[in-house]
Amino acid sequence: MTSPHLPIFEPLVLPDADSEEWGPHQIGGSTSVSGIPGDLISLVDGYRNVRVCDFSQQGKRIRDMQAAQGYNRGRVSATPSEEEDKGFQLVDTSSAPRKHHVNKYSQPRWQDHRNNRYQQQHQHQRDGRYQRGGRPGGGRQQSAYQQGWGRGQGVARGIKDWSVSPNPDWQLVRELPFTLLAKAHVDPKNVAYEDLVWCGTGLKAYEKTYDRVSPKLTKSLKQYLDIAFYNVSTGQDPVIEQLLTNQPVAKGQNVTVACTDSVLSVMMAANRSVYSWDLVITRLDNTILIDTREGSNLDMLTVNETSSEPPATHPGEGEGANTEAFNTVYKVGEEATCINQNLTVQASHGPADQKKENEYPNPFDQRDEDEEEEEEDEALPPSNVAYRYRKVDLPRVPEESKSRNISMIVRTEVDAYVPQPEGQEPVYAKIRALNEIPSTQQQKQPWRSSLESQKGAVLATEVHNNAFKLGRWVASALLAGTNVFKLGYVTRARMNDPFHHSLLSVQTYKTEEFAKQIGMNTSNAFGIVQAIVDLVMQYKAPGADDEEEEEEEGASFAGKFLLLKEPSKSKIRLYAVPWEEFEESDGEEEMSESEDEEEEDSGLSCMPSAKRLLLSALCFLAAALYLSNFPSFWRTSRMPGITHMVAFKLKKDASEEAIQRLMDSCNTLKEISIVKDITAHRDLGLDPERNHDMMFLVKFDSIEDYKAYSTNPVHMEIMRTILLPILEPGSRTALQFDN
Predict the structure, then answer these.
(1) Across-strand partners of 382?
(2) Do 121 and 334 contact (CB within 8 A), yes or no?
(3) Taking CA 254 as the corner, what is the angle to CA 253 and CA 255, rounded to the nearest 5 degrees?
(4) What is the phi/psi pair of residue 576, to 5°?
């Protein structure tokens, strides 16, 4: 047998050390190496200048560039060793793949239509639909886009990112793994519901024609740019504030919790989540307020959060269709949020006579205020969603000695009602939609073909991919008392077009049965809420006497906590955080500067400067701890006007006679006509670091009266002659509550 001919490699001669040359000598002046088969980058002479190697780039990118630029497309290189096979040639008849490389400094084409095609989100942001409170488009509240969403700083940043980075100064109260949360249970049969008040512009009937929608008979999803969708936080809801004032003060083993169904559903479905999220919990004695931060990622929906193939965090990550910019985790979340808002309006857009009037109008409708202030941007009418404020009572766990009876004031939302024959009780509905995004899984069929014959399989897949989102929806429906759950399936008109959508199907479920179908354990859901509230109530500040019982008569506590989900891990953390955490420092500084200027102008420059904050009436819990002892004054807080509070620390050598003179000065100040009410209190039990031991509360009808009070001669004389001599320097803190 004749051995095959092998190329002979001759040793290369290197240049001398003194030579200016670098590398081996050229072989015969030719650029080819005889006897070595292969392709030397490119055989097209002078076509490209190619670097020998580039360690800063990945090989895949170079291969993709060569394929896109047509390097050696449709041909096989003819080296000298192949001259004998000239009669044999390979021909590639397939079309070469085209890859679009977008310059990072240029704007993607789909964004060119951002303002005119996907304008709903930005219209919402400009008109205040995603604002957390206040007038649409104004005030201290910022829109979602202004808060950083869309710049990689907001909703659904990615699986590995914290919603808020833990601060080393925070105290870790407890780390709760999901395996531990799974053991918490409260019997749902013992959970009691009570309607407190209904608010809204009018609840419309669900259009039953949407139950007949199918993949062969689809409906186009409209965009409602002339309707405002409000998402007001717990602390800025005036109805919750009023309901809290009407409730008896919780003491002993009783706890009052104020929150929204959106916030409470996060806790109830916490053990189904993957992405990081956080909730702010504020405690004042036995009253707890649960809320979200400004710009929280919980204000937007997620898509395929619990899937094995979640959306990419940034364009170009991964492989396949999900690498486009409009398929990233933020964009599909924004798309899902708008889809659900539009479907809720469209599916309940019945005739005007098919409308259930509520007891009170929408508490967040700002159209009347805008007309009075003659703003340039006309306020939009609110959606027809009904706000159903309910009282939800969780009984204490008998086995747990430190468990509490929890009474929750919850703002829930009802999307529509299903018409019933006369004499029957109304049936309320929650309307939600799942949206389809492109997938790289080859075995996955599009919804247009699979919903006809495999509805159960599609739902099972979505339950796996969106377990947390579906759990939140079902929890909200249970809290709102909606007997019917309408689940829509929405897909894009074209998969590369995230702006136009079609409704393929609407499936109807009984809420409790649907909860079982998706594996939602309502007993465990309420148990998680009970466990977290008990942890907050059992917390004692560092240095506190362990033997002192919180239930002791006269004992009080105020603190702020953060419930934080760790990204990609099955655990949540409860932190104790400082009071000033998550406050809007910029707005406070501006208010402080303006108030200090007013004080100087008013003639009170002799007084030490006071730290001033502008807060809503539910956000001053730390500074107004004593208010629980004065319900008569607190119950007037929702009256229109200004409440001015000044807290300060007295000198240690201040005589009791001087302090009593200061207390008696209230009677003199009450004689001022613009003062509607004034009270003075001692032994406040505030933060020991501040150690304020006296506080004045003054009520006025308007800010003008407050300014006039600052310059009133009687007020100024009392401040100079009575307060200033016994005031500890730098201890004066002033707060102003605009009701």
Answers:
(1) 228
(2) yes
(3) 120
(4) -95, 120
- Helix spans in 115-226 (H): 119-127, 178-181
What are the residues facing 645 on neighbouring strands? Answer: 697, 735
- Two structure tokens written together for 215: 């993949």
Please say whether the beta carbons of 96 and 70 come within 8 A: yes
Q: Specify which residues 559 forms β-bridges with.
A: 283
Count of domains observed in the chain: 3
pLDDT of residue 435: 95
The Cα–Cα gap between 399 and 546 comes to 22
CB 201 within 8 A of CB 381: yes
Domain boundary among 101, 134, 150: 101
Instruction: Classify each residue of 624-661 as buried b or exposed e, where b means 16 or more C-beta atoms within 10 Å of its C-beta.
Output: bbbbbeeeebbeebeeebbbbbbbbbbeeebeeeebee
Mark whether 86 and 227 lie in a shared domain.
no
Name the residue type at position 690.
R
- How far apart CA 384 and CA 230 sit, in angstroms, is 11
Distance CA 703, CA 689 (A): 31
pTM above 0.90, yes or no: no
d(C-alpha 634, C-alpha 284), whole Å: 14
Question: Per residue in 286-325, is it b (16+ CB within 10 Å) or e — as a string?
Answer: bbbbbbbbbbbbbbbbbbbbbbeebbbbebeeeeeebbbb
Q: 279 lies in which domain range? A: 109-542+558-577
pLDDT in tens, 230-250: 889 998 899 998 898 887 877
DSSP letters along 161-178, please?
Answer: S-SSPPPTTSEEEEEEEH
Residues 6+ apart with CB under 8 A from 352: none
Asked if residue 548 is part of any domain, the answer here is: no
Is there a contact between 253 and 551 (Cβ–Cβ < 8 Å)?
yes
Q: Read off the pLDDT of residues 516-534 as tens digits, 9 standing for 90 and up.
A: 999 999 999 999 999 999 9
Q: Is residue 620 part of a domain?
A: yes
Residues 59 and 118 occupy one common structural domain: no
| The predicted structure's pLDDT at residue 456 | 92
Instruction: Establish if 3 belongs to a structural domain.
Output: no
Picking from 112, 114, 149, 144, the residue whose alpha carbon sits closest to that of residue 127 is 144
Q: pLDDT exceeding 70 applies to what percent of the chain? A: 61
How far does CA 732 lie from the centroid of its chain?
35
CB 722 within 8 A of CB 661: yes
Nearest to 667 by CA among 599, 726, 718, 721: 718
Evaluate the CA torsion angle 639, 640, 641, 646 in order and state its sign.
positive
